[in-house]
Design goal:
The complex is a heterodimer of chains A (333) and B (476).
Chain A (H helix, E strand, L loop, with lengths): L1 H9 L31 H10 L6 H13 L3 E4 L6 H11 L3 E6 L6 H4 L1 E3 L1 H11 L16 E3 L1 H7 L4 E6 L6 H13 L1 E4 L3 E4 L5 E6 L7 H6 L1 E4 L5 H11 L5 H16 L8 H13 L7 H11 L3 H12 L5 H10 L1
Parallel strand pairs in A: 1-8, 1-9, 2-5, 5-8
Antiparallel strand pairs in A: 3-4, 6-7
Helix pairs in contact in A: 2-3, 10-11, 10-12, 12-13, 13-14
Chain B lengths: L1 H14 L5 H13 L5 H12 L6 H11 L1 H4 L8 H17 L11 H17 L2 H16 L10 H10 L2 H15 L5 H34 L1 H7 L15 H22 L13 H8 L20 E7 L5 H17 L3 E6 L3 E3 L1 H4 L4 H11 L11 H12 L7 E6 L11 H10 L2 E6 L13 H4 L5 E4 L3 H12 L1
Parallel strand pairs in B: 1-2, 1-4, 4-5, 5-6
Antiparallel strand pairs in B: 2-3
Classes of the chains: A alpha/beta (333), B alpha/beta (476).
Chain lengths: 333, 476
Amino acid sequence: MNQDVNQDVSSDVIPDGRPDVSSDVNQDVDPDRRLPGRFESIDSVRERLGEVAYLADAGAAGVVFLADRLGKPVLVEGPAGVGKTELAKSVAKITASRLIRLQCYEGLDESKALYEWNYRKQLLHIQSAGTSEAEPERDIFGEEFLLERPLLAAIRSSEPVVLLIDEVDRIEMETEALLLEVLSDYQVSIPEMGTVRAAQVPLVFLTSNSTRELSEALVRRCLYLHMDYPDAERERRIIRARVPGVSERLADQVARIVRLVRTVELKKQPSVAETLDWARTLVLLGIESVGPEEARDTLHVLCKHASDIEKAAKELFTVGADVQAGADNAMER
Amino acid sequence: MLDVLEGLISELREVGVPVSLAESLDAAEAVMQVPLDDAVVLKQVLGATLVKSSTHWKAFETVFDIYFSHQLSPRTGDEDSADATDAGQGSVITAADAPPSPLGAAGDGGIAGSMTDALMAALLRMDRRSLAMLARRAVAQFAGIVPKRPVAGTYYLFRTLRNVDFDGLGARLARELMAQSEPEDALGERLAADEAARRMEMLREQVAGEIRRLLVADRGAQAVARTARRPLPEDVDFMHATHEELQAMRLALQPLARKLATRMSWKRRHGRKGPLDFRGTIRRSLSTGGVPVEPAFKYPRPARPEIFVLADVSGSVASFSRFTLQMLYAMSSQFSRVRSFVFVDGIDEVTRFLAGRDMAQAMAKVNAEADVTWLDGHSDYGHAFESFWERFGREVNERCSVIILGDARNNYHASGSWVLEEMRRHVRRIYWLNPEPRGYWGSGDSIFEQYAPHCDGSFECRNLRQVEQFVKTLER
């Protein structure tokens, strides 16, 4: 049995408990482990993302392309609800990869992120083996007692994988270190087993709402993508792609109103998701064109705080914000 | 290409954006993967590898635009790219030949007029190509660029925009768009005005880009970059920050304030300091057949700490206090256990004003309603501290931390430092953040040296970077 276990893992594992002495000489990812490029060009990334109704801007498409070519993880930062997580999901979709998601939270640890020994099973195993002293110790540190957690699962998967580490800013500074080995060398060291190296380089996305600054070491290993709210033109196309039955005109109006609302200083800026909700609401209500009445009645879909609704309404419906002032502002800037 | 990249990176470092060696290698590798003729892609690719913080993006953009200006321009018009460069160089030469006078271009009002009309038409149609061409022509005609002069081009921009009647153009555009807007109601008009402002901004950027391109062609990227250098948001000095800079700082301040408040209210729940939870251990052992594999511990649950922030809002620290108010607001919006006080020579609690959702309103309320002057409205730390102790002294306890923000310039009043001494015995920590350079502490009417011994730490706090440093020291 001992032999079998060894056989199973030996393809990926440097056997025995000398952790990664030999493997770390070569810091680089083996070129032969790298998948052939998933994308031909930046435009093709964009096109294929468009096919699954994700309209990427030049930045997002460029970074995804680079991540594939350089075999580096992507750190996506930006306000909530601009489509950071959606980007990872869409990329998984177009590359026909399995999406493995690690949702981060305060208190996340090794046993939840990397792997855990199934010690209940180990204990039962020892007990059932009875008193036969001959059982070698490493028997209980075999494949069958290992519980895979998302990071290890992503590394060991033989099929293509997109690994999404969501809201990485929620874990503590110290826990970040767990990710480093995975992110830079695509390997996991398990003291009892050895080093598990990736059979293929997964595409890795980390998302962050920038509630805190990530450690230098983590950031340095990643490509950085700052996602902001889309411009009106792109948002219009997103609405067209995602909301069935919306007219060109309504989409345009919605996008422009949302753009204006975002210039107001709000507690919570309307996210793309909320824009879509609003557009859906308008379609459901059979509204063809948004006038002040309709906007006022449905604004609560867009803004969630009472004070925000008030402010947004004020901005939208005050005629006093006259032309000259607008032009002056532009000049001052 | 490598030369340009090298220049770009060293300029970024010069500005203060940290670029590590590994990152610059990444950038070089990344550049090889993409077509070089597409400036938009190139910018994104370099940004992704070199700039790892959104607050640095603006600085990166400026540097990139300077170093890759020659790559940016040909994209605007493909067939006339060659003669565009000619025209560019031509204008430099003509500018050299004819000594430019500030009013030089004002004479030929006819040309300016037709230019304005052409711009108007292009703006109405949102024709980027012709807009770019017109911007180029406008710069050639009106900017009056003097070669070899070490300027960043702000004045050239101003001169060009004035000559094409930028303001009037904006107003006309807004009127036209409003007339076009279909539902003729207040909302439609508002949207039209917004659209107009955006298109004007685009024109402005076109002109600015063209001027930058000419400057780079004239003096080389490195020299232009040096004149265009601006401090990063975290390096701007609070005392001398402009309004715009304070605005930019605000975005960076939010996460910082949150971090500060978290650090200050640190609940020591880490480590297994608690006693063994016997019941919990037995309960857990059931799943392993009665063997207590994983013992459970009782974690200490300390009461939630409070933070008191005392901020000087007197005239001597006027722009610093604008920052401190922002800081107070940011902190109190993150944590309910922050109590804020402002003082000049009297002191008042402003926690209730900051509780609202609206920053501008909160600021106005603090300024209008807080009762901070006692005698003459000149800082009197002594009196402010004494009345604080009198009114709120009973409310501080060992769970509280106190942060004081101010320059300790006391106008030769009594220091009242006994309050701090007394307070320190009752609270967990006292920190003092001083907006003045360390060298000035204790000079003139600053009596910081009398307060400093009673604080657990005193920190120079002139820009966001230093605030961040302070927050970091709290980690330990």
